[in-house]
Every structure is written in C-alpha cells, then in structure tokens.
C-alpha cells in the first residue's frame, strides 16, 4: 500500500532532491501524496543543531538499501544545511530515499521531562513479528496495525509505546524502539537477528560497559514479567534516548528507580554530550 514520503512535518523548509524547498511550495505537494516506490528511511534526533550519531544512521540506511540503487553521497551536508535553514536546534530529522527521490524534513521531537524519567512510560503489546527487522522501510500495513493498537487504552491509560510479541509470545522490541530488561547487573536484550539494531542501542552497549553492567542475550514473555522474573525494563530510541517502563499492559513496574538503570542512563548521556561537543558545526562553540 503506497504511503506519503512526508510524515509529521515540522519547520518551514525541506530538502528535496538536493534543493531547499519551502514546505508550502507547489512542488512539495506531491510528497504528501501516496508514493508507490519502496521508501527507505531514518529518523535522527537533533540536539543543539547536531544530528546525533549521523554516521551510524547513514551506514544503516546504506545497509537497508542494499545496492537496490546508489546511496546518495551528500546526505551529511544536506542534513546540516536543513537544520540550519529551519533554525530549530532541538528536533528530529527524517531522511527518506527511494530509487528516484531523496527527501529530508524535520519532525517534532519528544524528550522526557524529569517526571517521565522518574515514573517511566506505559506500554502495551502488539502481536507482530517483522520479516526483516534490520531493513528500515515504510510499510503501510504495519503503520495501520500500530495506529489501531495505539487507539486502545490500557489499565494505565494511553500507551506511549507498543512492545512486539512474536509467535511464541516473547517480547522482542518496541514498535519504534529497542527493548531491554534489567535483572541485578545484567541488561538483557533480544538476539540481534530478531530485532532492528537501533543506533541508540549500539551506544547503549558502550554505556552498559561504562556503568559496570553486563549485556546478556535473552527473551522474556509477558508471563515472565507477570510472574516477577523481571522487574525493570526500558526502551531506547533515537528520538528519546532511554526511557524506563512504568507498565506493560496491566503489570506495574518501578523501572525508573532501579539504580542499574540510573547508572546506565547517566553513562549514556555522557556519550551523547561528548558526541555533540565533537560534532558542532564550524564556527559554533
């Protein structure tokens, strides 16, 4: 099912095939209509004008395209130019490429406040198993299933994120995030081949080591959580970094107070700060 190239647009300018175009220009209208080509995409968090871990996102985009067509070489320059033109220092950057088009635009960002970090977010379950989790393409059927499930409130209110359950009932990842569990000093994640290898997740691995924790491969079901085998869970994603989980369906958790999660989050934020400092645009301090 075709889907528009532009989704959740913010800002006044977009990059369209290497040209800066106003969002209300007539030539941008076609980007809001369903597009029949396969669309490969990345969403990148921008902080203080710096697209976080841009190189990693572009490498994953290259792997997703997998030789279907040449990877555009000027995406880094176009990314920084678009961020500067819109003059929005904290936002999300969305890159969409097809065989015939490349479009960059900004989308609204969400970053948790102190209360959300302390309390955590509410999650629900969606029975869905991705066929090729490591290829980021826009699938209308998946987006429709996600939207339908988000419309259903749970015991703790609206869901911030949905956790995907496979055919065996194991929780593998979030609909737009990676999923981790913590037990004692172990940080547990699904096997690499079962999930989208998130960019934030890659740097979480470094933070785990810095925090003196250990990454372990494993899977847990909702029943495992219900029976108390796991008491802490969190999400990682480029748009919001790390978020503790307050509830999975009707099961309450106290993830935000887990000392292991707090140490891990602190170590990750240090990695982010160092990246920003070393990737500011020229002329900025």
Can you tell me the CATH topology of the largest domain? D-amino Acid Aminotransferase, Chain A, domain 2
Reported CATH architecture of the largest domain = Alpha-Beta Barrel
Assign an overall shape: globular
| Uncertain stretches of 5 or more adjacent residues | none
Radius of gyration: 19 Å
Counted by DSSP, the helix tally is: 7
Overall tally of domains: 2
Number of DSSP strand runs: 18
Percentage of residues in DSSP E strands: 25-35%
Euclidean distance between termini CA atoms: 46 Å
Secondary structure category? alpha+beta
Report on this model:
This protein is of the alpha+beta class. It folds into two domains: 3-107, 2-Layer Sandwich (D-amino Acid Aminotransferase, Chain A, domain 1); 114-273, D-amino Acid Aminotransferase, subunit A, domain 2 (D-amino Acid Aminotransferase, Chain A, domain 2, Alpha-Beta Barrel), CATH 3.20.10. It is 27% helix and 31% strand. The protein has helices spanning 54-65, 75-86, 114-119, 140-150, 199-210, 222-226, 259-278, and strands spanning 3-4, 9-16, 19-22, 34-35, 40-47, 50-51, 91-97, 102-107, 121-127, 161-165, 170-174, 178-183, 186-189, 214-217, 220-221, 232-237, 241-248, 251-252. The longest helix has 20 residues, at 259-278. The mean pLDDT is 92. The strands form three sheets. Strands 9, 10, 11, 12, 13, 14, 15, 16, 17 and 18 form a ten-stranded mixed sheet that branches. Strands 3-2-8-7-5-6 form a six-stranded antiparallel sheet. Strands 1-4 form a two-stranded antiparallel sheet.
